[in-house]
Design brief:
single chain, 3 helices, Phasin domain-containing protein
Length: about 140
């Protein structure tokens, strides 16, 4: 019988293979579209009035915006860090809440606990008196 980790790895392998297949398909489609566009006769495009300010704006913005590859790298780095932190938290919670449970994850320095906040005074309210319903 397969373990949970083996089953999870098999599913992950299938997802990664599907993603690689999709990547190859998109690359081929892009190359074919470029070949098709290159084979088509060029169509003259009219110069639109007022296009110059938009071109200047585009150039100005392009200089200050990150490249798409930088955005992808930064977001995947963030996601990797976030998933790692979530995994560590979940494993730590399992260790704390499950008697005798020990994680397979590498041991890290213990997390310092925040000092307990002083208890807020409890406000007592008078009990509401109710009267029995009258019978008709």
């Amino acid at each position: 019988m397969s373990t949970y980790r083996e089953i999870t790895n098999q599913v992950a392998d299938q997802w990664v293979a599907a993603l690689k297949n999709a990547e190859e398909t998109v690359t081929k489609l892009s190359q074919n579209a470029q070949r098709f566009a290159d084979a088509m006769p060029s169509i003259p495009t009219p110069s639109l009035p007022g296009a110059e300010p938009f071109a200047k704006l585009n150039e100005a913005l392009t200089e200050h915006l990150p490249k798409p590859s930088e955005i992808v790298e930064a977001n995947f780095d963030f996601t990797t860090r976030l998933l790692s932190a979530q995994r560590d938290l979940t494993l730590r919670l399992l260790e704390v809440t499950t008697p005798g449970a020990k994680s397979d994850a590498p041991a890290e320095a213990p997390v310092a606990e925040a000092p307990a906040a002083p208890a807020a005074p409890v406000k007592k309210t008078a009990a509401k008196k109710t009267t029995p319903a009258k019978k008709a």
